Amino acid sequence: MPSVPTESDLLAVARRWAADPASWPVPLRFDPATRWYARLAAHHDHEVWALSWLPGQGTDLHDHGGSSGAFLVVSGSLTEQTVSGGRLRPHLLTAGSGRHFGPRHVHMVTNRHVEPAVSVHVYRPALHRMTRYRLVQGRLRVAEVAQAGVAW
């Protein structure tokens, strides 16, 4: 029986996809109106997404609906913010760096830099929902629960 991939295995999957963007089944593009994303692959145990980020583009504070995951910056730089001690704490991720996370990870990711950025994201299991949050007086408050096939 094949083993279930660990979170660090998901980061290895992201590294493999990031190594050859020319082989992606969807051509990379940048959208000036909103952050661009496309699913690159769907397997029985995980899915892979590519995202592009122009300067200033980012996500809301969100989780991944119980999925574990990993993401790797292919080019450019991204700032991931996580909640610690009731405050957002920034973590700079540059090209070639990434991180893996468990099913309860809440973060927001933004391109705070002058150059465009590209990243590869892997989720296990596939994303079915994402919860968006607001940080109010040091506490996470649910703002919205978004469903796959409706919100993305």
Report on the structure:
With 152 residues, this protein is mainly beta. It has one helix and eleven strands; from the N terminus they run αβββββββββββ. The strands form three sheets. A five-stranded antiparallel sheet has the order 1-2-9-4-7, with helices on one face. A three-stranded antiparallel sheet has the order 3-10-11, with no helix packed on it. A hairpin with a 2-residue loop joins strand 10 and strand 11. The radius of gyration is 15 Å and the shape is globular. The model has no long low-confidence stretch (mean pLDDT 94).
**Terminal Cα span:** 33 Å
Helix content: under 10%
Number of helices, counting only DSSP H or I runs of 4 residues or more: 1
Described by strand count, sense and barrel closure, the largest sheet is: 5 strands, antiparallel
The chain-level mean pLDDT equals: 94
What Rg is obtained from the alpha carbons, in whole angstroms?
15 Å
Strand content: over 45%
Give, in order, the helices and strands. HEEEEEEEEEEE
Strand order of the largest sheet: 1-2-9-4-7
Poorly predicted runs are none
The shape is globular
Summing up helix and strand content along with how strands pair, one would put the structural category as mainly beta
Total strands: the figure is 11
Regarding quaternary structure, what we see is single chain
